Amino acid sequence: MQKIDKEAYQKRLDRITALFADMMVHADEQSTYRCPYKNRFDECTAKFGCRNQRQPRAAGKLLLCGGDDKLDYRSAWETAADTNLQATSSNHPAGTSNHAGPSQPLEVGKTVFDYADELAIQVPTSCGRSGHCHECIVEIERGAEALAPRTEAESFLREDYRLACQAAIQNSAIDMRFAPLRRKPKILSSSREKPIELDPPITRQGDTVYRDDEAIDSYRGHLYGLAMDLGTTTIVLDLVDLESGKSIHLSSFENPQRFGGSDVMNRISYDGEFSGELRKAVVNALNHEILEMGKEHGFVRQEIYEIVVAGNSTMRDIFFKMDVQSIGQRPYKSLSERDYLEGKRPSTTLVESTRRLGLRANPKAQAYGLPLIASHVGADTSADLVALDVAAQEGTFMLVDVGTNTEVIVGRDNRLLAASCPAGPAFEGGLIKYGMPGYEGAIESVRWENDTFAYSTIGALEPQGICGSGLIDLLAELRRHGQMTPKGVFADKAYELEIVPEYGITFSREDGSNLAQAKAANYCGQFIALRHFGIEPAAVDNLYLAGGFANYVDVENAIEIGFLAPVPTERIFKIGNAAAQGAREVLLSRRKRQDIETLVKSIEHVELETTPDFFEVFVEGCQFKPMPANFPSATA
Question: How far apart are CA 615 and CA 611, in angstroms?
């Protein structure tokens, strides 16, 4: 009897398992999106009215179905509405449902979605509020005990996240506050504008659309592409005309994957337990945004022919249906990076059909994932380098892309060095009692004036919390006026300070400790990268700050608390949303695409945690004081 090769057998078994998994996903999508009354000829066999019904091809034939199999069909059925759950009387004082100010009295039996309707809050859904699409995730910011226990449809959620359509009131005496996961951040309308030599893979000759030399479609009126910065906290989409190179529509929204954790390590862990949920959440959000763009600008999804994706290693790979567990454990390598290092693939670039990813685009459209650099230094940093035009840089430069996972690049001549800093969500609003991302109502700047804190908020609205730029200002002001020591101890050893007492916004020692650790990660990345490169901060000719958050930071305050290296401020330049800009340039230029794929292979990567004195540097970085201007072991 022939001996069985266990390794080969396991590979075949894994392949079969993967095939069946894809079949199950396809079946699940079909059951959700393709109406059971739609036959193989796209005709409607239903015996009731539906808004998707169209005129038949010929008299006496069945009506045609106009549904596109991308949006849930059930909301189009013209059937009697389900009876609403009735409120029951209560002898307790009435609680309220609240979202950013307005409130409504609670009634037992009503859902959070009902209150979103009453408060005119947009919560996405495509399943008729049945719990199937998982799009209506909300965060219960206060009063979770007012709600009934999670239903089976919500079993994939943790902590204070619920499905708005499933979360029903069971105790009307408790105030409850919620927030949808599609809030609009304050974001730059554009990055630095610069001319781009148009050479996209998608072109048109007459009425035929080509990808390179392959005819893929007949011209429908537009050739559009999407450039996407898939951030851990925020997603930015740029709809681009591939023939003119002009931006048609720029939009941004909160990454709806936040229910899986606020940083990449938590999302990796979540994806291992609930595989596919994070990807489904972001795909649903993107499809919703594409639909809204189409309505606003008068085009159909079939006119989108390519999507370029920039994002850190975890965000990119989840989007492309890849297992990300290897990124969360040493040596922190993506499967694509591991295959590249083993010679199994020419680069870490990913290309996939948008149809397989479930995106609303042309059936022949493709998604292109920019290459990774190394470990957690991902495709977003590659896009930054495209926008920065590294080849044109003179002297020594440093790029710092500030975020939940901060990336640092130091370069001079033909040498480039990269490092990644797991800063966590503190400066994005996580782990801080009154912290919040840069949305309307966030305090974005703080000054100590006349024995009180003066502040300004995004949108000039009533303050709801403090975003990252405001937190940096607050820390610098506390240090500057002797209200806090470098180690975060408040004057008179107070535990908590009142920042905006009329709105109950405070800042505690615990908040300061969490910010100290997040700041230390940024400090370590810059300090160790510069020292490894052999230079001191004064030798940096240009320091580029990338990212929407960094664009609003007061650099002097950031230097004063050690958030940024002490580079002379006249050499510090804010370059805005460089990742989105780089993705846009790659969308429009095959040459830039080839150049970045080549460049990333030459970048040196330094792992911060393997540095012998990493712990000592980190502890020093936890203090709210400037980074040293002179490095003992640096040789300029």
Answer: 9
